Amino acid sequence: MLARSSSMQQRAAMYNANALKIGLFGANCSSGRSATTVPERWTASWADCLRLARMADDAGIDFMLPIGRWKGYGGDTDFHGATLETVTWAAGLLAATERITVFGTVHAPLFHPLIAAKEFVTVDHIGSGRFGINLVVGWNEGEFEMFGVTQREHDARYDFAQEWLDVVKRAWSEPDDFDFAGQFLKLKGVRAFPKPYGDARPIIMNAGRSPIGQSFALRNCDAFFTATADTRHSIEANAKKVEEIKSAARGREIDVYTVGQVICRPTQQEADDYYRHAVIDSADWGAIEKMMALKNITRQTVAADEFQRQRQYFAGKAIGGFPFVGTPDRVAEELANISRAGMRGIAVSFVNYLNETPYFCDEVLPRLARLGVRQAH
Ligand SMILES: Cc1cc2nc3c(=O)[nH]c(=O)nc-3n(C[C@H](O)[C@H](O)[C@H](O)COP(=O)(O)O)c2cc1C
User: Fold this and answer.
1) Does 225 sit in the ligand 1 pocket, CB within 6 Å?
2) Is the dihedral of CA 82, 24, 347, 219 positive or negative?
3) Atom of ligand 1 nearest to the CA of 216
4) Is 259 a pocket residue for ligand 1 (Cβ < 6 Å)?
5) What is the mean pLDDT of each run of 10 residues along the chain (377 residues)?
6) CA-CA distance, 14 to 335, in Å (whole number)?
7) CB of residue 320 inside a 6 A radius of ligand 1
8) How far, in Å, CA of 297 to CA of 303, rounded?
């Protein structure tokens, strides 16, 4: 493992000069970000995750972002039925790689903050400062019931997360014992060593969509992930979104990221055909309808044509994020537009990460370098 110096700036830059950071999203979960029945769908086995991380590390991919998920969504494939826990997953991957940043995704209400703080420090040392945290508060009731934990009312989840994160940050930085007396957490004589790797702490991201979730991110995080729904093709619309976020942060440094699914093939026809085949024609509708029901979109709550529209939207766009479907030239151009709009990066998924990452890295990454948004690798 490389010994390296580690400042917050270097961590946020993921120790490289790529203007557009590219990560892999969701590889710790079965089926990744595609609720599909195709036989080549992602299994998320440890062996495959390890091969993927080593491949991505060699090819210059910047980060891996897992999903904190505890329970599958059912359907024919039990979408996300098998998931590897993200902090231990990150520990294993960081021990096996040299350059790539790996995130752990943590539900604040399910982990004691001092256990979490120490786990994070341990993994951060394993990765010599390449560990990052995606802090989530939870939205899926069934997952919480399984733990016997009652979900707080929406906005209070972020009040709790604020205290939780304050404790974690103090455990990382306080040289002396401290007490914490909050509304939710009361801790006495807290002592935590070692501190995170180098003279810094893990980068922290959040992807809250609500106003309170967003303001939590802007106050506390280094990176904010937004699912830039309908603006993908417009640099101006994306730039406006970035501007809004940055001005709401009132001068506090925050990087804006987004997510998407990539289907890249030598011809547009091949890419379009595979997208239709894997993502629409072979969709796991049982799982998709379960996810929709969690957001209260059912045949009972919305009109029939709206229900059909939402089903198509969830299968095609909402679950995986916006689809980048096309030739290497087209995918590279669309990804470069994200950078031109001021975004710092994107976390992408593939139907089968191991099969598709090599072509993406061989064909799209060099084009992004020629377009000036990444270094040549
Ligand atoms: C990139 C990204 C990653 C996310 N990862 C997770 C996750 O791993 N686990 C989870 O429960 N929620 C995850 N979420 C959901 C968000 O944390 C958040 O709960 C959701 O966007 C709703 O926003 P709100 O909490 O402000 O209502 C993710 C969202 C995005 C866009």
Assistant:
1) yes
2) positive
3) 26
4) yes
5) 81 97 98 97 98 98 97 96 98 98 97 98 98 94 88 94 98 98 98 96 95 95 83 77 90 93 98 97 96 92 94 89 95 95 96 98 98 95
6) 18
7) no
8) 10
Most ligand 1 atoms within 8 A of CB, residue of 85, 107, 136, 349 to mutate: 136
User: Three-class SS of residue 31?
Assistant: coil
Residue nearest to atom 2 of ligand 1 (CA): 207
Report pLDDT for 219: 95
Q: How far apart are CA 223 and CA 107, in angstroms?
A: 17
Residue nearest to atom 9 of ligand 1 (CA): 68
Candidate from 209, 225, 258, 291 with most ligand 1 atoms within 8 A of CB, to mutate: 209
Q: Per the confidence metrics, is the pTM higher than 0.85? A: yes
Residue reference for tokens 């826990």: 85
Q: How far is the CA of 375 from the centre of ligand 1 (A)?
A: 30
SS3 content of the chain, % helix, strand, coil (to 5): 45, 15, 40
d(CA 340, CA 335): 9
For residue 122, the model assigns a pLDDT of 98
Atom of ligand 1 lying closest to residue 69 CA: 9
Here the tokens at position 304 are: 């029939």
Q: Is ligand 1 within 6 A of the CB of residue 227?
A: yes
Give the SS3 label for residue 166: helix
CA dihedral 82, 87, 92, 94 (to 10 degrees): 130
| CA 68 / ligand 1 centre spacing (Å) | 9
DSSP character for 344?
Answer: -
Compute the half-sphere exposure of residue 326: CA atoms within 13 Å on the CB side of its CA: 12
The pLDDT value recorded for residue 230 is 58
Amino acid at 91: A
User: Can you point out the beta strands (E) in 138-280?
Assistant: 178-181, 186-190, 203-206, 223-225, 255-264
The torsion angles phi and psi of 90, rounded to 5 degrees, stand at -65, -40
- What number of residues does the chain have? 377
The protein residue whose alpha carbon is closest to atom 20 in ligand 1 is 208
